[in-house]
Amino acid sequence: MNEPLKHLLEVARKAPQTKSDLEVQRRSFAYGNTHFENSKITREMVNKIADEMPLSDASSKALTGR
């Protein structure tokens, strides 16, 4: 791996993620894993279900870092 790429990866590791960033990542992960198993799953379905679900204590702690 070249030095400029190593530097960019190090900067990215230290960049803080917002609650919104983490939620987008969570939904993308859910979609990717469910769509892989069932091609009828859509992003809209994942978003609808995620919008209906309350955050668990664990999710809330992960999002806030507390």
TrEMBL record:
Protein name: Uncharacterized protein
